[in-house]
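Dear Dr. L.,

I hope this message finds you well. Following up on our conversation about the binding site, I have prepared a predicted three-dimensional model of the protein together with copper (II) ion. For your records, I am including the exact sequence and ligand specification that went into the calculation, followed by the C-alpha coordinates. Please feel free to forward this to your student if that is useful.
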Amino acid sequence: MRFALTATAVASLIASASAHATFQQLWINGVDAGVACTRRVQSNSPVTSATSNQIACNAYDNNSNVCPVKAGDTLKVEMHQQYGDRSCKNEAIGGQHYGPVTVYMAKVDNAASANPNSAGWFKVSEGGLMSNNPDYFAVQVLNDNCGHWQFQIPSDIQAGDYLIRAEVIALHAAGAGGGAQFYPGCYQVRVSGGGSASPPTVRFPGAYGNSDPGIAVNIHQDLTTYKIPGPTPYGTPAATVATTKWPTTATWNTAQQPAANPTTYVPADGGSPQPTTATVPNVPTTTAAPQPTTTVVTQPSAPAGGAALYGQCGGSGYAGPTTCAQGTCTKLNDWYSQCTP
Ligand SMILES: *[C@@H]1O[C@H](CO)[C@@H](O)[C@H](O)[C@H]1NC(C)=O
Ligand SMILES: [Cu+2]
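The resulting structure of the complex is given below.
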Protein backbone atom coordinates (compact mmCIF):
# COMPACT_ATOMS: atom_id res chain seq x y z
CA MET A 1 0.00 0.00 0.00
CA ARG A 2 1.29 3.44 -0.78
CA PHE A 3 1.58 5.93 2.01
CA ALA A 4 -1.33 8.30 2.22
CA LEU A 5 0.02 11.85 1.95
CA THR A 6 -2.03 13.34 4.75
CA ALA A 7 -1.66 16.97 5.74
CA THR A 8 0.51 15.81 8.64
CA ALA A 9 2.72 13.75 6.36
CA VAL A 10 3.12 16.60 3.93
CA ALA A 11 3.96 18.94 6.80
CA SER A 12 6.62 16.55 8.03
CA LEU A 13 8.20 16.41 4.57
CA ILE A 14 8.75 20.14 4.77
CA ALA A 15 11.07 19.46 7.67
CA SER A 16 13.13 16.98 5.68
CA ALA A 17 16.25 19.11 5.31
CA SER A 18 16.70 19.07 9.05
CA ALA A 19 15.45 15.49 9.11
CA HIS A 20 18.88 14.19 8.09
CA ALA A 21 20.51 12.05 10.78
CA THR A 22 23.58 10.13 11.88
CA PHE A 23 24.29 7.00 13.87
CA GLN A 24 25.91 8.17 17.11
CA GLN A 25 25.69 6.05 20.27
CA LEU A 26 26.33 2.37 20.96
CA TRP A 27 24.89 0.15 23.70
CA ILE A 28 26.67 -3.01 24.82
CA ASN A 29 24.56 -5.56 26.72
CA GLY A 30 22.24 -2.81 27.89
CA VAL A 31 25.08 -0.50 29.03
CA ASP A 32 25.24 2.92 27.38
CA ALA A 33 28.63 3.31 25.70
CA GLY A 34 27.58 6.70 24.32
CA VAL A 35 30.03 7.88 21.67
CA ALA A 36 33.03 6.21 23.36
CA CYS A 37 33.94 4.14 20.31
CA THR A 38 32.06 6.00 17.58
CA ARG A 39 33.71 7.29 14.44
CA ARG A 40 31.74 10.52 14.64
CA VAL A 41 30.07 11.32 11.33
CA GLN A 42 30.98 14.92 10.55
CA SER A 43 27.63 16.05 9.13
CA ASN A 44 24.12 14.68 9.11
CA SER A 45 23.89 15.00 5.33
CA PRO A 46 23.57 11.74 3.41
CA VAL A 47 25.95 10.00 1.07
CA THR A 48 24.18 10.14 -2.28
CA SER A 49 26.05 7.53 -4.33
CA ALA A 50 26.62 3.85 -3.55
CA THR A 51 29.96 4.06 -5.35
CA SER A 52 31.42 6.87 -3.23
CA ASN A 53 34.23 6.01 -0.78
CA GLN A 54 32.05 7.59 1.89
CA ILE A 55 29.49 4.79 1.48
CA ALA A 56 31.58 2.84 4.04
CA CYS A 57 31.46 5.12 7.11
CA ASN A 58 30.52 8.55 5.66
CA ALA A 59 33.04 11.36 6.43
CA TYR A 60 34.16 10.69 10.00
CA ASP A 61 36.41 11.93 12.80
CA ASN A 62 39.07 9.52 14.02
CA ASN A 63 38.70 8.04 17.52
CA SER A 64 41.45 6.28 19.47
CA ASN A 65 39.00 4.32 21.67
CA VAL A 66 38.02 0.74 20.90
CA CYS A 67 35.20 -0.73 23.03
CA PRO A 68 35.70 -4.23 24.47
CA VAL A 69 32.85 -6.64 23.64
CA LYS A 70 32.36 -10.41 23.62
CA ALA A 71 31.24 -12.66 20.81
CA GLY A 72 27.51 -13.22 21.28
CA ASP A 73 26.95 -9.86 22.99
CA THR A 74 23.77 -7.91 22.30
CA LEU A 75 24.46 -4.43 20.94
CA LYS A 76 22.33 -1.52 19.88
CA VAL A 77 23.19 1.35 17.59
CA GLU A 78 21.38 4.66 18.12
CA MET A 79 20.56 7.29 15.49
CA HIS A 80 19.49 10.92 15.89
CA GLN A 81 19.00 13.94 13.67
CA GLN A 82 21.40 16.27 15.48
CA TYR A 83 24.72 15.30 17.00
CA GLY A 84 24.45 14.99 20.79
CA ASP A 85 20.65 15.35 20.89
CA ARG A 86 19.33 12.06 22.25
CA SER A 87 15.84 13.34 22.93
CA CYS A 88 13.02 10.98 22.06
CA LYS A 89 10.83 14.01 21.35
CA ASN A 90 12.49 14.29 17.94
CA GLU A 91 12.19 11.45 15.49
CA ALA A 92 15.50 9.62 15.10
CA ILE A 93 15.33 10.29 11.37
CA GLY A 94 12.38 12.40 10.31
CA GLY A 95 10.91 13.64 7.06
CA GLN A 96 9.51 10.24 6.07
CA HIS A 97 13.02 8.96 5.38
CA TYR A 98 11.68 5.42 5.04
CA GLY A 99 13.83 2.49 4.01
CA PRO A 100 15.95 -0.38 5.33
CA VAL A 101 18.21 -0.54 8.40
CA THR A 102 21.28 -2.78 8.24
CA VAL A 103 24.36 -3.51 10.37
CA TYR A 104 27.66 -4.89 9.07
CA MET A 105 30.95 -5.89 10.72
CA ALA A 106 34.49 -6.09 9.32
CA LYS A 107 37.51 -7.76 10.90
CA VAL A 108 40.49 -5.38 10.90
CA ASP A 109 43.99 -5.28 12.39
CA ASN A 110 43.33 -2.14 14.44
CA ALA A 111 39.82 -0.75 14.70
CA ALA A 112 41.08 2.72 15.62
CA SER A 113 43.08 3.13 12.42
CA ALA A 114 41.50 0.74 9.89
CA ASN A 115 40.55 2.12 6.49
CA PRO A 116 36.90 1.15 5.99
CA ASN A 117 37.30 1.08 2.20
CA SER A 118 39.79 -1.78 2.36
CA ALA A 119 37.90 -3.76 5.02
CA GLY A 120 35.89 -6.91 4.24
CA TRP A 121 32.32 -6.50 5.51
CA PHE A 122 29.66 -9.06 6.43
CA LYS A 123 26.09 -8.19 7.32
CA VAL A 124 24.90 -9.14 10.81
CA SER A 125 21.44 -7.56 10.93
CA GLU A 126 18.84 -6.28 8.49
CA GLY A 127 15.32 -4.96 8.34
CA GLY A 128 13.57 -3.85 5.14
CA LEU A 129 9.84 -3.70 4.48
CA MET A 130 8.49 -5.04 7.77
CA SER A 131 4.84 -5.12 6.65
CA ASN A 132 3.09 -4.45 3.34
CA ASN A 133 -0.35 -3.88 4.85
CA PRO A 134 0.16 -0.99 5.18
CA ASP A 135 3.77 -0.49 4.09
CA TYR A 136 6.01 -0.16 7.14
CA PHE A 137 9.78 0.08 6.86
CA ALA A 138 12.58 -0.71 9.31
CA VAL A 139 13.24 3.05 9.63
CA GLN A 140 9.79 3.39 11.17
CA VAL A 141 10.65 0.68 13.70
CA LEU A 142 13.87 2.60 14.43
CA ASN A 143 11.82 5.75 15.00
CA ASP A 144 9.37 3.88 17.24
CA ASN A 145 12.38 3.05 19.42
CA CYS A 146 14.01 6.49 19.72
CA GLY A 147 16.66 5.54 17.16
CA HIS A 148 17.68 2.25 18.75
CA TRP A 149 18.34 -0.84 16.59
CA GLN A 150 19.40 -4.07 18.26
CA PHE A 151 21.62 -6.82 16.86
CA GLN A 152 23.92 -9.55 18.05
CA ILE A 153 27.63 -10.08 17.54
CA PRO A 154 27.83 -13.57 16.01
CA SER A 155 28.99 -15.96 18.74
CA ASP A 156 31.34 -17.91 16.45
CA ILE A 157 33.43 -15.17 14.81
CA GLN A 158 37.14 -14.88 15.50
CA ALA A 159 38.38 -12.72 18.36
CA GLY A 160 39.98 -9.41 17.38
CA ASP A 161 39.25 -5.88 16.26
CA TYR A 162 36.18 -5.12 14.18
CA LEU A 163 34.52 -2.12 12.67
CA ILE A 164 30.75 -2.03 12.97
CA ARG A 165 28.87 -0.24 10.20
CA ALA A 166 25.22 0.74 10.76
CA GLU A 167 23.18 2.16 7.91
CA VAL A 168 19.81 3.63 7.05
CA ILE A 169 18.95 3.98 3.38
CA ALA A 170 16.26 6.66 2.99
CA LEU A 171 14.11 6.03 -0.07
CA HIS A 172 11.58 8.89 0.19
CA ALA A 173 13.12 10.58 -2.86
CA ALA A 174 14.35 7.47 -4.66
CA GLY A 175 13.22 6.22 -8.05
CA ALA A 176 14.61 4.56 -11.13
CA GLY A 177 16.79 7.60 -11.77
CA GLY A 178 18.39 7.65 -8.32
CA GLY A 179 17.69 9.77 -5.25
CA ALA A 180 18.40 7.25 -2.47
CA GLN A 181 20.10 8.76 0.57
CA PHE A 182 22.61 6.63 2.47
CA TYR A 183 23.23 7.28 6.18
CA PRO A 184 26.12 4.99 7.23
CA GLY A 185 28.09 5.35 10.46
CA CYS A 186 30.83 3.24 12.07
CA TYR A 187 31.96 2.07 15.53
CA GLN A 188 35.17 0.45 16.80
CA VAL A 189 35.08 -2.75 18.93
CA ARG A 190 37.50 -5.44 20.15
CA VAL A 191 35.80 -8.86 20.26
CA SER A 192 36.92 -11.47 22.79
CA GLY A 193 35.79 -15.09 22.95
CA GLY A 194 34.21 -16.39 19.79
CA GLY A 195 35.33 -19.19 17.52
CA SER A 196 36.98 -19.59 14.17
CA ALA A 197 34.28 -18.41 11.78
CA SER A 198 35.25 -15.91 9.16
CA PRO A 199 32.13 -15.06 7.14
CA PRO A 200 32.33 -14.18 3.42
CA THR A 201 32.71 -10.45 2.88
CA VAL A 202 31.88 -7.55 0.56
CA ARG A 203 33.52 -4.15 0.05
CA PHE A 204 32.21 -0.60 0.49
CA PRO A 205 32.12 0.73 -2.15
CA GLY A 206 31.34 -2.44 -4.07
CA ALA A 207 28.49 -4.10 -2.20
CA TYR A 208 25.81 -1.86 -3.74
CA GLY A 209 25.05 -0.44 -7.16
CA ASN A 210 23.00 2.71 -7.65
CA SER A 211 20.46 0.73 -9.69
CA ASP A 212 20.06 -2.17 -7.26
CA PRO A 213 16.36 -3.08 -6.90
CA GLY A 214 16.33 -1.98 -3.24
CA ILE A 215 18.01 1.36 -4.04
CA ALA A 216 16.50 2.57 -7.34
CA VAL A 217 12.97 2.03 -6.06
CA ASN A 218 9.87 4.19 -5.78
CA ILE A 219 8.30 3.51 -2.39
CA HIS A 220 5.33 5.80 -3.11
CA GLN A 221 3.46 2.86 -4.62
CA ASP A 222 1.98 -0.41 -3.47
CA LEU A 223 4.89 -2.64 -2.46
CA THR A 224 4.36 -6.32 -1.72
CA THR A 225 8.05 -7.17 -1.31
CA TYR A 226 11.29 -5.24 -0.99
CA LYS A 227 14.85 -6.43 -1.69
CA ILE A 228 17.22 -5.26 1.04
CA PRO A 229 20.51 -4.17 -0.61
CA GLY A 230 23.74 -6.06 0.03
CA PRO A 231 24.52 -9.68 0.89
CA THR A 232 22.47 -12.19 2.87
CA PRO A 233 23.28 -11.69 6.56
CA TYR A 234 25.63 -13.99 8.41
CA GLY A 235 23.16 -15.48 10.84
CA THR A 236 19.47 -14.76 10.50
CA PRO A 237 18.04 -13.01 7.42
CA ALA A 238 15.11 -10.63 7.78
CA ALA A 239 11.74 -12.29 8.28
CA THR A 240 9.40 -12.37 5.30
CA VAL A 241 7.24 -9.26 4.87
CA ALA A 242 4.25 -9.30 7.22
CA THR A 243 0.83 -8.94 5.59
CA THR A 244 -0.85 -7.51 8.66
CA LYS A 245 -0.40 -4.13 10.32
CA TRP A 246 3.01 -3.77 11.97
CA PRO A 247 2.75 -3.05 15.71
CA THR A 248 4.20 0.36 16.49
CA THR A 249 4.88 -0.54 20.11
CA ALA A 250 8.36 0.53 21.20
CA THR A 251 10.65 -2.19 22.53
CA TRP A 252 12.94 0.51 24.00
CA ASN A 253 11.62 2.27 27.11
CA THR A 254 12.04 5.81 25.91
CA ALA A 255 11.63 7.16 29.46
CA GLN A 256 15.08 5.72 30.19
CA GLN A 257 16.76 7.47 27.28
CA PRO A 258 19.89 9.25 28.57
CA ALA A 259 20.44 12.86 27.63
CA ALA A 260 24.21 12.82 28.27
CA ASN A 261 26.73 11.28 25.91
CA PRO A 262 29.39 9.13 27.62
CA THR A 263 32.78 9.26 25.92
CA THR A 264 34.19 6.22 27.69
CA TYR A 265 32.73 2.79 28.23
CA VAL A 266 33.05 0.60 31.32
CA PRO A 267 32.07 -3.02 30.66
CA ALA A 268 29.74 -4.57 33.22
CA ASP A 269 32.50 -7.04 34.16
CA GLY A 270 35.01 -4.26 34.81
CA GLY A 271 38.63 -4.05 33.78
CA SER A 272 38.60 -1.02 31.53
CA PRO A 273 39.02 2.74 31.59
CA GLN A 274 37.21 4.96 34.07
CA PRO A 275 34.52 7.24 32.72
CA THR A 276 35.39 10.89 32.31
CA THR A 277 31.78 11.96 31.95
CA ALA A 278 28.69 11.04 33.87
CA THR A 279 26.97 7.96 32.54
CA VAL A 280 23.93 8.32 34.78
CA PRO A 281 20.87 8.32 32.56
CA ASN A 282 18.85 11.50 32.69
CA VAL A 283 15.11 11.38 32.48
CA PRO A 284 13.81 13.20 29.42
CA THR A 285 11.96 16.38 30.21
CA THR A 286 8.72 15.50 28.48
CA THR A 287 6.68 12.63 27.17
CA ALA A 288 8.86 10.01 25.61
CA ALA A 289 6.98 8.54 22.68
CA PRO A 290 8.12 9.92 19.28
CA GLN A 291 5.38 12.18 17.97
CA PRO A 292 5.73 13.03 14.29
CA THR A 293 3.17 15.83 14.48
CA THR A 294 4.88 17.59 17.39
CA THR A 295 8.31 16.89 15.89
CA VAL A 296 7.36 19.08 12.99
CA VAL A 297 6.67 21.97 15.32
CA THR A 298 10.16 21.70 16.78
CA GLN A 299 11.89 21.68 13.38
CA PRO A 300 13.40 24.90 12.11
CA SER A 301 11.45 25.97 9.06
CA ALA A 302 13.13 26.16 5.69
CA PRO A 303 15.37 29.19 5.22
CA ALA A 304 13.69 32.26 3.82
CA GLY A 305 15.84 32.03 0.70
CA GLY A 306 14.38 28.63 -0.22
CA ALA A 307 14.82 25.01 0.80
CA ALA A 308 18.20 23.84 2.10
CA LEU A 309 20.49 21.48 0.25
CA TYR A 310 18.80 18.02 0.08
CA GLY A 311 15.57 19.58 1.32
CA GLN A 312 12.28 19.14 -0.46
CA CYS A 313 11.38 21.80 -3.03
CA GLY A 314 8.35 20.29 -4.75
CA GLY A 315 6.07 17.31 -5.23
CA SER A 316 2.40 16.39 -5.25
CA GLY A 317 0.64 17.92 -2.25
CA TYR A 318 3.77 19.76 -1.08
CA ALA A 319 3.24 23.26 0.30
CA GLY A 320 6.77 24.39 1.25
CA PRO A 321 9.36 26.51 -0.54
CA THR A 322 9.86 25.68 -4.21
CA THR A 323 13.20 27.41 -4.60
CA CYS A 324 16.57 26.32 -3.23
CA ALA A 325 18.81 28.33 -0.90
CA GLN A 326 21.57 26.03 -2.12
CA GLY A 327 21.62 23.75 -5.16
CA THR A 328 19.05 23.23 -7.89
CA CYS A 329 15.51 22.00 -7.46
CA THR A 330 15.42 18.63 -9.22
CA LYS A 331 12.30 16.50 -9.73
CA LEU A 332 12.95 12.97 -8.46
CA ASN A 333 9.43 11.67 -8.84
CA ASP A 334 5.86 12.99 -8.78
CA TRP A 335 5.96 13.13 -4.99
CA TYR A 336 9.34 14.61 -4.33
CA SER A 337 11.63 17.26 -5.77
CA GLN A 338 14.84 17.96 -3.93
CA CYS A 339 17.59 20.60 -3.81
CA THR A 340 20.60 18.82 -5.28
CA PRO A 341 24.20 20.10 -5.47
C1 LIG B 1 41.99 9.99 10.29
O1 LIG B 1 43.16 9.21 10.19
C2 LIG B 1 43.55 8.93 8.86
C3 LIG B 1 44.69 7.92 8.89
O2 LIG B 1 45.70 8.38 9.73
C4 LIG B 1 43.90 10.22 8.15
O3 LIG B 1 44.26 9.97 6.80
C5 LIG B 1 42.69 11.13 8.18
O4 LIG B 1 43.00 12.38 7.63
C6 LIG B 1 42.20 11.34 9.61
N1 LIG B 1 40.92 12.06 9.56
C7 LIG B 1 40.68 13.14 10.29
C8 LIG B 1 39.34 13.74 10.14
O5 LIG B 1 41.48 13.63 11.05
CU1 LIG C 1 17.37 13.93 5.10
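In brief: The domain at 22-256 is CATH 2.70.50.70 (Coagulation Factor XIII; Chain A, domain 1).

With kind regards,
A. P.
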